[in-house]
Amino acid sequence: EAKRRGRNCAVPYAAALDRGASERLQLVSQLREALRAGQFVLSYQMQYDRNGAVVGAEALLRWNHPERGLLAPGHFIGVCEDSGLIVPVGRWVLREAARAHARLKEAGFGWFRIALNVSATQFQQGIADDVAAVVREFDLPPGAIEIELTESVVMANPEAAVESMQRMREDGICIAIDDFGTGYSSLAYLRRLPLHRLKIDRAFVRDLGSGGDDETICIAIINLAQSLGLKATAEGVETEAQWRWLQDWGCDEMQGFLFGRPVPLEALLDDLRARHPR
Ligand code: C2E
Ligand code: MG
Ligand code: MG
Ligand code: MG
Hints:
By secondary structure, the chain is of the alpha/beta class. It contains 13 helices and nine strands.
């Protein structure tokens, strides 16, 4: 097409760009509507300690699209972030996770921890205030909620990050660094951050058990966590070999398709009841 038009190839190119922009705008308004209409849901992926005991779950956002069905964050989270919609969406996630914890507590699982993901914009727009309000409203016990932040969110403005992390910690919130090892953390700051956990990125877990370079990285992260007094969690555990390797090297907690996929709250509750019959 571009070749046929010769010099005019700039025209279809510009048209394509416009279409991209208008599609994005349309997606933004669909997402705004999704929030209003209650089309967002949380899926929960269980997390286990080294002995295989359940300790909690990570809440993962899904969009129950009227035509396309359940969509993973890869389809829409970027647009939420670029448009600022991530702030109200993130607030919804926080309240929904707190509501889920209240349900679990009611069912006798008050010890269960729910982890949730927080984007840069949401973190910078005063997350500590939102967290404090939710902790009060739902009377959340210490350790009920864990916030997952990426290295870039924290390192963008470490001083400000320390302050809001400190406030959340005082409210009984645990804080994890997600996808650890893929960003640029200052070790000097890492030592000063009020953290509880480093989550080893899936990319480093993939080849565990086969003697590759990634094993060295995982060992380093596990040791770093240990020497800073933090827990290490491996994400994306898919095979028995990876699991055994992580157990042998002292990784504290694990999460991945080997143990289970993300599921709705009702299925999570059924699973917990089956594990802990009364
Ligand atoms: P993440 O926080 O690193 O979450 C882990 C992702 O890995 C999830 O994808 C999960 O379904 C997937 N996963 C878990 N176990 C395995 C495994 O064994 N193998 C493989 N291949 N994948 C596994 P998901 O749900 O598509 O979420 C993708 C990302 O979207 C998350 O990465 C997180 O960064 C973001 N996200 C999810 N929910 C939220 C949210 O509520 N708010 C924000 N701001 N971001 C979110
Ligand atoms: Mg996460
Ligand atoms: Mg992760
Ligand atoms: Mg990730």
